[in-house]
Amino acid sequence: MILALKILAGFLMGAIPFAKLAMLGTGIDITKTGSKNPGFNNVLRVTKNWWRAGVALIGDISKGYVALLLLGPGEISASALWFIAIAAVVGHCWSPFLKFNGGKGVATTVGVLLFLEPRITLVCLPLYLKFGIGCDQLFLFKESVDDFIGRAIAADSHDRPRSSSDGVAS
Hints:
By secondary structure, this protein is mostly helical. The chain has helices at 2-14, 18-22, 40-47, 50-71, 78-93, 106-116, 118-131, 137-159.
């Protein structure tokens, strides 16, 4: 029950639309302008304002990281952390605050990966920035979710104590 509440909280934290918040005071609804995607790239494209785009980017990265930072402490398995991470990204992509629309989840994925796999993320992020800009973001998101699910399953099986019926000699 507690894990289910943590997953729900992760979803709701991920659902906070920082791109929409970054546009407050402009009179522009980012979900109806440009690509209609509530994310960093659309905010930058529409406003040409790095400060507003930075608020959207840092907010989206931070909500993934902070969700795990706040919800992860205590007796929690690696697989439970991955499920909370997935919930945060899914919350960004299908935000109830945006009538179950949302962004593509790239920045929020970076946030959760910075928490879960910081060394790998810090190595891969510059490579993505150099070579990944302009790639089909939806494809990248789908691959991220597939990877999340695979990691959660692997972590879950790794967390379980082995029994003699597993076929592994003691």
